[in-house]
Task: structure prediction
Amino acid sequence: MTPDDDRRPRADEHRHADPALREDASGRPPQPVTVVVADDHPMWRDAVARDLTDAGFEVVATAEDGRSAVARTRATRPDVLVLDLELPGLRGPEVCAALTAAEVPTRVLILSASGEHADVLEAVKAGALGYLVKSARREEFLDAVRATSAGEPVFTPGLAGLVLGEFRRVKATSQQEATERPIPELTDRETEILTYVATGMGYKEIAAALFLSHRTVQNHVQNILGKLQMHNRVELVRFALERGIDPATHEPRGAAEPR
Amino acid sequence: MDASPQLAVTLDEHALVRGLWRGIDVFRCLALVYAAWSVWHRHDEVAQLTGAIVILAVLAAWTVVQTVRPARTIPMYAAELAIGCAAILATRLVDHEWVITGGAKTVPSIWPSAAVVGFAVLLGWRGGLVAASLVGLCSFIEVQEPTGNTVTNSILVFLVGGCIGYCVDLARASHAALARSMRLDAARAERDRLARTVHDGVLQTLAFIHRRASELGGEATRLGVMAAEQERILRALVSATDLAAVDRPADDGPTDLRSLLGHVEDARVQVVAPGQPVLVERSAAVELVAAIEAALDNVRRHAGPDARAWVLLDDDGSNVNVTIRDSGHGLPAGRLERAAAEGRLGVSTSIVGRLADLGGAASVQSGPSGGTTVRLTLPRHAKEHR
Result:
């Protein structure tokens, strides 16, 4: 794989008027987007945190291993967790699973040094919203954090291929053994969009090709992720219980709204 | 027992097996000492002491032969088994009736077990059980009225023959698996080395010939097409990273399509695949890869220097779909037809023709956002699907 090829989202696709500021419908002054950075490499962690701070984000905590990533994210409830895939203690997918099981509303952006592999898919199934390679340029990274904070999935073609394959696999196994759980299936439109993402098209290009709005394409991608993650929720809760992570912290999601 | 000579040749292949053979050699000596001691211990009960000594002498002679120059062959162990059984039966000649029915040991005592274990090592659990049943049968014939000892001893001999034979079978199987995986590793390393050399030299040269020839036109065009075809074949050959391919004929069995596409990736081409294998019959996979390579060659030649390409593998259960999209100039209308008319057969034979031969379909269209999209569809037949 060639990680450098996976530069997504494109710089022009996630431009907002004031990128690091969260829009607030209630008329209060806008709040900066809060971020937690989890990476076991101190220099990388500091560089990411500095880039984010310079761009107007508020880095509320950093973490150097999986367990503290979970603990600090649960404590600070940031808008975005920037998560390295290979962390000591709990691995990236396990951190995602723990956060999803604990119903932390933070959105997770995976940063990975290598190209696509099974771990990325695991992390996305466990609730991560986006994925970016570490070799991405600074602007691409900041755009990806912005997109993630706005709830927009950040997909590379490689990840789209893995997700498409996962839907195919789930369908094939469900045909072999009759399971009682409902099987998530993609609509034709969703398959089409996923295929476009997997062959390197940006949301904007897809929207133009299908005569849809940019927002609609994003919604489709979001739905695709949602189906994938919903299918895994039961396993996530079981996983969290096995690892001694208490999933029963039922705070209302509003608790993470601006303080 | 069928004594196939080939079996004896393939014996000493495993450390465990070699250890067992040494163990049998030691055991045979100890068993001889034990048998001699048993006879000496009850020498006043023995009717024909001379006869018993003769039996022991035969056993001793065989033990010396097998210790000095051990031969782990089926004939030798058949001979040893025969001597052991004869010694058991001969006990009848040298002992009083009342001693035998009283449950005394046979003259060879545990010595025949060495032959049982030997057969277990030679022929696995079946050999062990057959040899054990022969020994058991002889001891039953010898006592005529079975005592408790006879039954217990026969069961023990059965257990020894069966269990050791089973262990040896397992050891052989695991050794074979290990040897196979080492062979595959070596083959892969060698192929990687070859692939690098070939890729850097021969393939690039062929590609260059192809390129120059199509620029020159005329007679050279044919040469170029031939070079391109050879390049593709050679590339498919050196890039077959499917490990199991080493051990089976080249046109056999399902192959993971992903493992055949590693070489097409570079700074401008990305292969996008699912996390699980995309299995296709090997012959079809090679053709499909050749079609993908042809499509990517077109991208390189026509899509412009900055164009990038993505190859998506998607196995939806009934079809294997391959989408090759590039971000280049796209196709002017009618270019494909003109190309075919001018005798430039790249797209029509390399892509459409190949897929038609496989029972699939191929389409080449302008992409949804500029560029070109090639779609290859390979239906899964019942025999491929399993």
Chain B touches chain A through 27 residues (CB under 8 Å). DSSP finds twelve helices and seven strands in chain B. The beta strands of chain B are 254-256, 269-272, 279-281, 309-315, 319-326, 361-366, 372-379.
